[in-house]
Design goal:
The protein is mainly alpha-helical and about 130 residues long. It is built from seven helices and three strands. The chain is about 60% helix and about 10% strand.
Length: about 130
């Protein structure tokens, strides 16, 4: 507990938590954004995915945003890009070991999110005066 307080104190000494080296903020910076988590999630389930398959599975993403997000994830070492020298061009993406290491944490975060959604739905029903009949 003492170590945690010391680390927290160091984070806020600068006056701006975003100027300090915070592992959690760093992680959120790498995987944050609208499309990075859905991309990673597709790769968790499919293992190797071609660009067009990925674009079709992410309804609403533009080609430019998919390319940008993939480049950022690759730049951070979370995914690997495999390019084949053939006509037509063939490119596949897969998680790197570093990206695969995120899976347990993201599955836990998904579980937590599901619990929070359930809580909020129940809380909304209670506040509106609606209760479940048994």
């Amino acid at each position: 507990m003492k170590k945690l307080k010391t680390e927290t104190k160091k984070l806020f000494e600068s006056g701006n938590v975003y100027c300090a080296e915070c592992p959690l903020l760093y992680a959120v910076k790498i995987i944050g954004g609208k499309w990075k988590l859905p991309i990673l999630w597709q790769l968790f389930d499919a293992h190797v995915v071609r660009y067009n398959e990925l674009q079709r599975s992410l309804v609403g993403i533009t080609s430019m945003m998919l390319s940008k997000s993939l480049k950022e994830l690759e730049g951070n070492g979370l995914i690997e890009r495999i390019q084949y020298d053939c006509i037509p061009p063939k490119v596949e993406y897969k998680l790197s070991e570093r990206g695969r290491a995120l899976e347990p944490s993201l599955r836990q975060l998904k579980k937590w999110g599901k619990e929070q959604l359930t809580y909020e739905q129940q809380h909304a029903l209670i506040s509106s005066g609606i209760t479940k009949k048994e």
